[in-house]
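Appendix B, Record 12. Input sequence as logged:
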Amino acid sequence: MSYKTPAWQRAAGQSKKGGLNETGRRSAKAAGMNLKAPVKGKPSGPAEMRRKGSFLTRMGNSPGPERKPNGEKTRLLLSLEAWGAKSKADAKSKGKRLLAAYQAKKERSA
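Logged structural output:
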């Protein structure tokens, strides 16, 4: 079966827990994007610390509700939870904290 839209734009490429699954990331890579899996736990190094902090800060500031009118979680909240945040406010604070720690680490090594 041949689809006209790539998997990352369809349910086949989207994780039920938020974000994209491996199929979605592969189809996005074929479209020229460079997507990696979420940093779920504690970042293992400065690069992951910066990546996770940037994502959480950016998505925590994005517009839109966390829940649908019927109470279900939106894809925004699901993706934040996949990265380890409980809400948009939590994502903002964790993101800022991670980016500050990254900057401090970067300045110490310079």
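DSSP finds four helices and no strands in the chain.
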